[in-house]
Amino acid sequence: MKNKKKNAVLVTGCNGDIGISICKEFADRGYLVIGTDLYNKPEFHCDFYIACDLIDFVKNEAVSLSFKNSINLFLDENHAVLKSLVNNAALQIIKPFKDLSTDDFLNSHIVNSIAPFSLIKCFEDQLNKSNGSIVNIGSIHSKLTKPDFCAYSTSKSSLSGLTRALAVEISQNITINAINPAAVETEMLAQGFEGKMDKYRELEGFHPVGRIANPIEIAQLVVFLCIDNPGFITGSEIAIDGGIGSRLHDPA
Predict the structure, then answer these.
(1) What pLDDT is recorded for position 191?
(2) 68: exposed, middle or buried (C-beta count within 10 Å: 0-12, 13-18, 19+)?
(3) pTM
(4) Looking at residue 239, what DSSP letter applies?
(5) Residues 6+ away with beta carbon under 8 Å from 190
(6) Which of 94, 157, 166, 241 is the most buried (most CB within 10 A)?
(7) Helix%, strand%, coil% for the chain, nearest 5
(8) Does the 6-182+214-243 domain belong in CATH 3.40.50.720?
(9) pLDDT-derived band at 252, boundaries 50, 70, 90
(10) 199-238 b/e with 16+ CB inside 10 Å = b?
(11) Could you tell me which residue, 101 or 199, shows the higher pLDDT?
(12) Cα–Cα distance for residue pair 44/221, rounded to 1 Å
């Protein structure tokens, strides 16, 4: 009798606060964790880690082929199957439209939308065989945005469209969903509010629940969609926004 193969997950942007939480949640559920990010070392212990710039991954066929081959070799050596892909990496360029360059706009779309497309192309066969799951980490900015977020919001809107379009084509054996968080308690967010704690508290208060999200809450939803999903949830965009997406900000 053959030993049952282990399940593995590939998480992009694994070194950020949300990425670390996602990796930990999968590890706690017994998954082998494959992580990728820009930097040479992982912030969380991954079973396999690849340093990769997703802009290079999209633009350079040799880079994407080496990436795919490295992961396939790891899976073979560990008697594992790729069960889940989490497209978590993101590039957020915040600039007024008048200062936003074409390269800013293009790179935002490459990292936030085209790289997920390319990764799904790379690993569709494995996920199809394993009846796997894909979760794209979108943003509330795909539907509701504010000044200076043109590149980010349009690229996240593209990711939403990709999720819906692929659900129509690949959902027979693969579930694919997007989750759209509002503000999340991350180091990146804290840096943006450095020296402006009054504004940070104001941001918390804008959310009807009275706070912003913890990265663990994002990770738990990802794991649910990948592991506990009965299979009928596919092509969905799930808001995890503390109610702010339902709130008008008109003067009282």
Answers:
(1) 80
(2) middle
(3) 0.95
(4) E
(5) 200
(6) 241
(7) 50, 15, 35
(8) yes
(9) low
(10) ebeebeeebeeeebbebbbbbebbbebbbebeeeebbbbb
(11) 101
(12) 19
